[in-house]
Amino acid sequence: MNFGAVWPEIVVSGVGTLLVALDPFVSAARQRWFGYVCLAGLLLAGLLTLGEPVGGGSVLGGMVTLDGFSMLFRLIFLAAAALVVLLSLDFILQRGKDLGEFLSLLCFATTGAMVMAISRDVVSLYVGLELLSISSYVLAAFLRDESGSHEAGLKYLLNGALASAILLFGLSLTYGLTGQTSIPALTHGLASALHTGYAPVVWLAVGMVLAALAFKIAAAPFHLWAPDAYEGAPTPVTGYLMVVAETAGFVALLRIVDTGMGPLAAHWGPWLAGLAIFTMTVGNVTALWQRNIKRMLAYSSIAQVGYVLVGLAVATPGGVSAAIFYLVAYLFTTLGAFAVIAALSVRDPGDAITDYAGLGRRSPALAVVLTVCLASYVGIPATAGFMGKLALIGAAVHGGMAWLAVGIAVNSAISIGYYWTVARTMWVDPAPADGGAVAVSPAGATSVALTLVGVVFLGILPQAFFWLSHWAGAGILR
Amino acid sequence: MSEYQAVALYLGVAAVVVFAVTAGIGRIRAARQTGASRMPYECGITGAEGAAPRFPVRFYLVAMLFVILDVEAIAFYPWGVRLRALGARGLEDMAVFAVVLAIGYAYVWKKGGLDWR
Amino acid sequence: MIAAQGIPLVAFLAVAAVLFCIGLFAALRRANAIMVLMGIELMLNAVNINLVAFSRYSAPADAARGQAFALFVLAVAAAEAAVGLALVIIVSRRRNTIEVDKIDTLRG
What we know:
Order of helices and strands of chain A: HHEEHHHHHHHHHHHHHHHHH
Radius of gyration of chain B: 27 Å
Structural class of chain B: mainly alpha
Structural class of chain A: mainly alpha
Number of helices of chain B: 4
Oligomer: heterotrimer
Number of strands of chain B: 0
Distance between the termini of chain A: 28 Å
């Protein structure tokens, strides 16, 4: 067997193992350099990914495929992990926690997400999903002395494990129907099982897989765990979960549902469309009432999930590539917002929206970045979110589901309500008497700057990324 | 299907006995319960404490660490079954697996997870 | 040999389905975090019965695949249970309860 194909995964999990081995020998206060080791490992993995031939063939006994999709999503996960490392260094060190433990969990979670990206078989996809999920449960509960954090971890685990069990039951049925676990084999096997008298079992399997993955991406009505988990988790972890865990859920949806169950698209498409419109409406309307910025962004992320689902529901190549583009835009926008929130909460743990009063005068740079990210969430022109929504609306219209395009437009209008509240608090409300300028560390400033560049670049020069997402999504629908 | 008839008969008898005992016991026992009839055992040494004492939490910790080791060991079974066919390459792969597992347990040991304080 | 034993595939699937439903009921009742974890373990066991039965009956040419999947599910389930129990211990130490409905500091 040739392990060359998975060197990026080996490097990332190797860095995680190395940090586990080193952590007990270095006191918590002297662990900052672990962060640089971790960043170097992620960078090396990224370079190795770029150096790999993209053939689309299968390696490692058919478990893994190296197509454009696996390449792009590996890079997405590595970039997200690197940004989260940058924005979490000071947050974790300031709280006197073991950075080594935190970063190793982050590396293992990222390895899991990368394994999902390259999987061509439901067995490896499941193992990657669980590696990501189990590491995420521990990360969510990382500040275990704070009541919010351990509660978030427990709720995330109980719901995530339930979703995994339902997903597995559905997958065991698809194995029984087709005798195969490889995703291309499912594509043919399920379609023929439908015509040989096993239709009810096929529907049961498809329904269970869809419901379980809807749980994982926090689509309404399966989203009830998400606001609690996202509010209670440590701020950098919340950003990581919203971006990597949700994107990984979409990777599973694209691989298992769009590819593996592709011939049944006429049947599951309308269900996903309903899920999309319900999810974006519930997310946006509930976000209007929130007082805590992390909880508000949690509902906002549920709304974003609804937008991305539009691209999957239309089940056209254009829809898939629009969804992939939106996921990249969502990565930079969300991590930008969380870079600012994490920089602000390094010392001061207040997450209420009123804590942001007068930020425009206290720290204009941070306030500008957060405003740009909120504008990108709404879809104001010249931001990444605008281009993403434009692509999704175009895909919905071309895919014959124009009502979904109307849904996106109406929901964007609703969402202005709560994003505007934050912007007004930052720029109009007076700063508290004791509020001085916020000190930002070099690592934090780097993460803020990189995400800002991403959001603006995707908004002004999106062509390269449109081409990339089209290339990556090419093999998804057959 | 004759084996199944025996199983069905067994289940039927078990169900009847269980329902008869739980439903009938209230009709034949004494109306008022006092003194020795409320003890778990009617003769012998009186119990010193309840039957369900709380286990110390550290027991669960060690038990969990053992369960992990126990279950990771199943990864050795497929390798053991195909030992000769997999050859030196299989040995290398399992060595990597064992080293990673050992690092995990070394971490637990160093962090004090195995101390029975 | 399969025919001689006389147990049809449907029997295994029925046991698995019943086990899955019991587990799902325990998990959705959300009485107590330990009960939820036990329910999830039951559901995973149902999955394993399915996988092994299918690998024996409907994919004899490629039987190892289903059995290998079941081994992965076992290992992952143990890791999940260990993390779950660890979190339950943390919560019970801090709050003196593991009733899921009473763990409700976070709400909005």
